[in-house]
Design goal:
By secondary structure, the protein is an all-alpha fold. It is built from eight helices and no strands. The protein has one domain. The protein starts with a helix and ends in a 6-residue tail after the last helix. The model has no long low-confidence stretch (mean pLDDT 82).
Amino acid sequence: MKELKSVKKVFLYFWLPLYLASFTLSIFGSLYSYLALHIIFKGLFAPLMALCAFLQWNGPLDKSFYLLQAAYFGAWVGDIVLVFQRENPALFCIGSVFFLFQHAMYIWLNLLPRGKPQKATPWFGVHYLVYVLFYLAIFLSNVSYMLKTVCTIYMTFLGTAFVTAVDKDMANKNKHTAMILGYVLFIVSDIALGFDGLVLKYGALVDIVILGAYYVGQTLILYGNIPEKVL
């Protein structure tokens, strides 16, 4: 056990520089059209999240851990596919399927108990309005019925992941707040991605919003899901 902790500590020294490189160089590659750079470092992000979960995990590797790993597999494939979605909008649908899988894993994860629960702060149902906003945006968008169908299904899963995160009873309120903020940023990233790729074609600068909000959101969700140390 001590040897494993030592190995984990060594890997953590390498993890942070790689994480920062993935974060910055993927955005740089997208902004300045260095496709290979963008693919390599964006493709590195989800595996780094999975590795961080392993390195930081406290306690036995239970169902929560494996659901989180499955979620990052979906994110990894989705990240690679969505690199090309501007050139081929059909890839937007394929990438959405893999991120839908990630959100399905997140929903399952959110429904599992975590530690000694404390009642979540009531939102009085306001968070359910996210569904109304999603469906209204899709209805008003000028895209094909096939894309509207894909987006409706995807946004239903994303909205449910957000709602179940808000309703989740967690012992650590800081982690709960971080998780909720992570989903909010994920939503911001996906809305920007949808409008950029399918509707308004804003251009490269919107990648700062899409990728920045996505990376920070995924990191906060990971932080919220790492279990507390057992004393």
